[in-house]
Amino acid sequence: MDVDAVGFLRTHSVVEVRDLDLEISGDAAKxxxxxxxxxxxQYGEILxxxxxxxxxxxxxxxxxxxxxxLCFRDDLYKLKKLxxxxxxxxxxxxxxxxxxxxxxxxxxxxxxxxxxxxxDFVSRFAVSLSSAKLFDQVITxxxxxxxxxxxxxxxxxxxxxxxxxxxYLLDSSxxxxxxxxxxxxxxxxxxxxxxxxxxxxxxxxKLDEILFQSLFQESLDVLMNDTDEEVSKFVHSSEFExxxxxxxxxxxxxxxxxxxxxxxxxxxxxxxxxEYPRAVQELDVAQVVxxxxxxxxxxxxxxxxxxxxxxxxLIQMINDLQVHGGQSDQVTQLRRKLATVLKNKIPVTDEHxxxxxxxxxxxVLEHLMTNQxxxxxxxxxxxxxxxxxx
Length: 390
Fold this sequence. Notes:
Shape: flat
Largest sheet: none
Oligomer: single chain
Strand content: under 5%
Structural class: mainly alpha
Helix content: over 70%
Radius of gyration: 38 Å
Number of helices: 15
């Protein structure tokens, strides 16, 4: 209530003034509580708006900087100044000159859009919610510039921006930036098939390694059955097949080394794959089921389980090598090598030998169980040998 305090005291008693003061104080307290409640409820939205304003301000500053850079950095963008006009204008040459100037302007605009798309991609891809759109935009600008093809006088700036683009791709793994399989396929098509651009040879070699390293983290079935047209064209290319064969051979060699290390151990680890827990509370039902499955196929010790876990993937790798263009002689040699290792590990069983009569019942049961486990393991290994076709 906006009133003159002295005049108010002249016209009202002290009691009325005190009552009014209490009323105003109560109203003020209620308004403060209401304000605090509204602030608590809307605080998140206030922060979001503040963040958005900050981002918009940052975009405005960056746009202003890039506009100034484009307008005044003639040394970077190689913009030629117009020659001073001398003499008279020949009317018949006006249209031809205008067409030439228009072509030069279009070229500068094309290169400027391409350059800005790379800058936008590098600065925003990792944090943007529309990163896929940024990626598509930069690929489109590369394609537009590639189709134009006549930009030799701007080669310096184009080379610098190409190096900036590829360097960002090289730094992606260390900065926890990931690309989809489809995006990697488009990068491969652009950098390794787009020969018009002045790529840095050293960067391209590094990118080749990172690109295939990232792709081979995906399942081979997923890669080969991808419905994306660019991905399909990529995975069926001769370059991909060569890299895939080299990768499979490398994995096979590593797997064989682990297998040979296991086989060469003087003493096998005969620790049972399953020991009864001390208390029911310690019982892992899923683990019990898995151990029962292992026992049913003769994998009763850790050494046998380790060998099985090495051999099964190794058989699949050799099959993959054959399916994806591996040399038949090489595949046959690998299968024979693995079959030889397996044949030497077939357990010797005494199924037809009668137990010694001096053995106790527990020893007889142990003898029978060992023979049963060895027979199951033998059948498993022979099945693996048959799968090799060796």
